[in-house]
Design a protein that fits this description.
- Belongs to the TonB-dependent receptor family.
- It holds the Pfam family TonB_dep_Rec_b-barrel.
- InterPro entries: Beta-barrel_TonB, Beta-barrel_TonB_sf, Plug_dom, Plug_dom_sf, TonB-dep_rcpt-like.
- It is a multi-pass membrane protein.
- The chain has 16 helices and 43 strands.
- By secondary structure, the chain is mostly beta strands.
- The chain has 2 domains: 653 residues, TonB-dependent receptor, beta-barrel domain (Maltoporin, Chain A, Beta Barrel), CATH 2.40.170; 114 residues, no CATH class.
- It has a 22-stranded antiparallel beta barrel. Strands 10, 11, 12, 16, 17, 18 and 21 form a 7-stranded mixed beta sheet that branches.
- A hairpin with a 2-residue loop joins strand 22 and strand 23.
Length: 913
């Protein structure tokens, strides 16, 4: 990988300096009071004969409690399950969780905004409505917006060897954690202790080729009587998987054009002689002379597959350290540091040239006295390989958590005062053609005609000649952008038992936070200086916001069988010269009519502060996956089903602008559940959940704008009305008398608004059964199932509710089931995991694909107390879900993978314990 020098970035601003000094003084006071009074308070920590089991803190509360069950369902995925169930990393485990029903664009989605990042969408409500925490603390957003519009947390690079467990909380939790916790909360709990040292090596490959990977992990501890320190190092490499490495999508039914010369007025392709046959070795010996009713041109059925990496290439290095220093029996200093460095490489587009692409994409040929369009795709055989035009990302992330915790002197209050900060930096190298490329192929520019179209007198041989890598280097380079994001938080959390009631202790907890978030998107200045062959301008974008929060919660055992909990929190956000404050609350009730049965219910309000990308973006561009031009269909008197301009793909380009006046989104959720645990060997639970979001921030609907435009232009609406004036101004079209793309949509201007409403509900069912035998070993059967019962939405207040589940354009899962059977006998442990993915619409959006089951198998052999060997096979039956209805690449992209069977061998060695 080539070395790139990137533009500099401004240093992190010390915006929290005014609060650091008083907090530091407070921490020092606590430290000194604890140090001098350690003997006096030593007696309070001695265990009593009737001491209760240690309490734990489960996601969704800050109050320690004895039971893992609470008023809201929490799903736990342990580190052991991540390995045994065949999950490759933290993201893979969360992506397969039954609560994750939403479709997301990941690294296999092709030309996405964020191919070096992966995220999830709990309940199908979008990545920005799921709060991701690392040890209960926020992480910096990925600095590039998901789909170019929303901020999210990247899950692709969290090392699995430092994870103790993952907790997934259903429903809203803003009263505990603040903004974003609308659909649910994912809390990734890191390991805090270990014994000795551990070396882990894992190597894997795919059965059908491509995508091989390897990983080395080393972790250990350094402990003394007062100091506990855990460190971890992980390095991994992953090879790309290209579409050409899967036979079912290695070629396209209709070849893609690689070289043509066209008369713009007639639309006919002009003769290229025997060029196509002379260059038949191009694109891996697949270039042909393709005949059409309007002439011939060069084409290849392997062009698109050659330039699409289904899995990105990745190198990853992660370092982690967690240290706890006991100053005395009641006071501990702690420090956690996590550093990650990742290099990602992908290919989603072929390097190409279209004549005069910055001015109508055609020119006046002085030699033929005609308007012509020339186009060429550069073959790998010309440019020194298919990887020559890959895009590169160099990402670095760091997170620190420093603080002190213990007991406030002279009281029964436990406290934790902490400073946490994280930063993410992503540097992108994007190959581009240079501004001199027209001159390279067409010769010197001879001026402009009266319509402003460039005039050339080109030699066709320049178009048809075989290039050399050196010539390709003369007309291409790469832009270098730098994106970063940061978050900082000062927090003080306390909890205690207030008093005793007949049924137990009343407990309470409180939290105070001061935080700041910021981001910077810095583009290569040459993009706007005419250095590259592009007219799309890109602006630097910067934004920041500060937040303040106070919250409290209480846990009350009303009766021996009935426990209530209540929490409230006020968050105050300051951004773009204004502020937005929100009060949220939640309440829960647990009823145990018998020791074996738990009935639970909860209600919560939640909110999400507007995405900073929505607020501060100056100008963003992209394109819709499909568009319907209602006006052109009506103008030609055609029904949508017969109209060529209905549902065409790829759709129209859009331009997006930010809006500083956005309000926070508001959410409400409630849940009811029952848990039955008749024994330690068996338990089952059923939970109903319901989530609603109002004032949801979305971009103006392009489809609605196009419908309104058609009504305005055809007289159904008053063309002079303010609505029509605004709508027509937003939809830019090429002139009706243009020689190329006459009357077509050039771009649609949109901006975000608080208008949308969305509501969804469903059920979760989970169960576990353990069977111990004397001769056949121990068996553990687990099952988790989630089904979406309803999902409805609307764009504006007066719109009718739309049934998203009935929408054959909605790729979210309707239901998902995961079952696992673990068999332990002697030194062997075997686990079979079967995931059943429910139906989803096919590529054409006309019917559903049938449910799909995928089986993973793992075997772990404990050779001795130090050495274990594992064999893991994913997709045991080598199944791939095909979908030919929507055209190439012939499988449901983003929903199911084309990998087929994958296998790993893992060796784990412990020493020095």
């Amino acid at each position: 990988m080539q070395h790139i020098n990137y533009p500099g970035k401004p240093a992190l601003k010390p915006t929290l300096k005014p609060v650091l000094k008083p907090l530091t003084a407070c921490l020092l006071a606590i430290f000194y009071s604890q140090s001098y009074s350690s003997n006096a308070f030593a007696q309070t920590t001695e265990p009593k004969a009737d001491a209760k089991p240690d309490s734990v803190v489960i996601t969704g509360s800050r109050i320690p409690r004895a039971s893992l069950e609470g008023p809201a369902a929490v799903t736990i995925i342990t580190a052991e399950e991540i390995t045994k169930q065949g999950y490759k990393n933290v993201f893979d485990a969360l992506n397969n969780a039954v609560q994750n029903s939403g479709f997301t664009q990941g690294e296999d989605f092709g030309n996405t905004f964020t191919p070096s990042a992966n995220t999830i969408s709990l309940r199908g409500l979008g990545p920005n409505h799921t709060l991701i925490l690392l040890d209960g603390r926020r992480m910096a957003d990925f600095p590039i917006a998901y789909t170019g519009t929303i901020n999210f947390t990247n899950l692709a690079n969290i090392p699995s060897n430092i994870v103790e467990r993952i907790e997934i909380l259903n429903g809203g939790a803003s009263a505990i954690y603040g903004s974003d916790a609308i659909a649910g909360v994912v809390n990734i709990i890191l390991k805090k202790q270990s014994q000795g040292y551990n070396l882990n090596v894992k190597v894997g490959d795919t059965d059908r080729g491509g995508g091989s990977n390897k990983r080395v992990q080393f972790s250990g501890t350094a402990n003394t009587e007062q100091l506990r320190s855990l460190f971890s190092l992980e390095y991994s490499e992953r090879e790309p998987l290209r579409a050409t490495q899967r036979d079912f999508m290695a070629t396209r039914a209709t070849p893609s054009a690689t070289l043509y010369r066209k008369d713009v007025k007639s639309g006919r392709y002009l003769d290229l002689g025997d060029t196509c046959s002379q260059q038949s070795d191009f694109f891996e010996d697949s270039q042909i002379n393709y005949k059409t009713s309007k002439g011939n041109y060069c084409a290849s059925p392997r062009l698109s597959p050659m330039h699409w990496t289904v899995q990105t290439k990745n190198q990853s290095l992660n370092l982690f350290n967690s240290t706890n220093l006991d100053l005395n029996a009641d006071t501990t200093l702690f420090a956690d540091i996590l550093f990650g460095k990742n290099k990602t490489e992908n290919d989603t587009r072929s390097p190409s040239w279209v004549s005069s692409s910055t001015n109508q994409s055609y020119f006046w040929n002085k030699n033929t006295n005609a308007y012509e369009a020339w186009s060429k795709v550069f073959a790998p055989e010309e440019i020194n390989g298919v990887n020559r035009f890959n895009r590169l990302w160099d990402d670095q992330s760091v997170g620190i958590n420093l603080g002190i915790k213990g007991v406030i002197p002279g009281t029964q209050w436990n406290y934790e005062a902490a400073y946490s900060a994280s930063a993410y930096r992503s540097e992108n190298v994007a190959p581009r053609t240079l501004a001199n490329i027209d001159q390279f192929f067409l010769g010197p520019k001879l001026g402009l005609d009266k319509a402003g179209i460039a005039i050339y007198a080109p030699d066709q041989q320049r178009l048809t000649q075989r290039l050399t890598p050196a010539e390709f280097d003369q007309i291409t380079s790469a832009s270098r952008s730098s994106d970063s994001s940061r978050t900082q938080t000062l927090s003080l959390a306390v909890n205690t038992e207030l008093w005793q009631l007949p049924a137990g202790a009343v407990k309470t907890a409180g939290i105070a936070e001061i935080g700041r978030q910021s981001f910077d998107n810095v583009v290569d200045p040459r993009v706007n200086q005419g250095y590259f062959n592009t007219v799309t301008k890109s602006d630097d974008v910067h934004g920041s916001r500060q937040r303040y929060a106070l919250g409290a919660e209480v846990y009350v055992p009303l009766l021996k069988e009935v426990t209530a909990s209540l929490a409230g929190r006020y968050d105050d956000y300051h951004f773009a010269g204004r502020k937005d404050g929100k009060l949220t609350y939640n309440g829960g009730l647990e009823v145990r009519p018998t020791k074996e049965l738990l009935l639970r219910g909860n209600y919560a309000t939640s909110f999400r502060a507007p995405d900073m990308n929505y607020i501060f973006k100056a100008r963003g561009t992209g394109y819709y996956s499909s568009t319907t031009d209602y006006y052109r269909c009506k103008a030609e008197g055609k029904e949508l089903k017969d109209c060529d301009y209905a549902g065409y793909s790829p759709g129209a380009n859009y331009v997006q602008f930010g809006s500083p006046d956005l309000k926070s989104e508001k959410g409400k959720s409630f849940g009811l559940g029952v848990v039955w645990s008749p024994s330690n060997q068996f338990d089952v639970s059923l939970d109903y959940w319901n989530i609603k979001i109002s004032d949801m921030v979305v971009n103006l609907s392009s489809d609605q704008l196009l419908r309104d435009e058609a009504d305005c232009r055809t007289g159904k609406r008053d063309i002079n009305s303010s609505l029509c004036a605004d709508t027509i101004n937003r939809i830019k079209r090429y002139p009706k008398d243009a020689l190329s793309r006459a009357g077509e949509i050039q771009e649609i201007w949109v901006n975000p608004i608080n208008a949308a409403y969305q509501a969804t509900s469903g059920i979760d069912i989970s169960g576990r059964y353990q069977l111990k035998t004397s001769g056949y070993g121990d068996f553990i059967l687990k099952a988790n199932y989630s089904k979406v019962l309803s999902k409805k939405s609307k764009q504006f207040e007066n719109d009718e509710l739309y049934d998203d589940l009935a929408d054959l354009g909605n790729s979210d899962w309707r239901d998902k089931l995961i079952t696992s059977l673990n068999w332990n006998k002697g030194d062997w442990s075997n686990t079979l995991t079967v995931t059943r993915y429910g139906k989803i619409p096919n590529g054409s959006g006309k019917y559903y694909l049938s449910p799909t089951g995928v089986a993973n198998w793992s075997t772990v052999y404990q050779a001795n107390k130090n050495l274990s060997v594992s064999v893991i096979v994913n997709n045991v039956f080598n199944k791939i879900k095909y979908d030919y209805s929507g055209g190439w690449p012939y499988y449901p992209v983003g929903s199911l993978t084309p990998f087929g069977r994958q296998g790993w061998v893992e060796v784990n060695y412990k020493f020095g314990a």
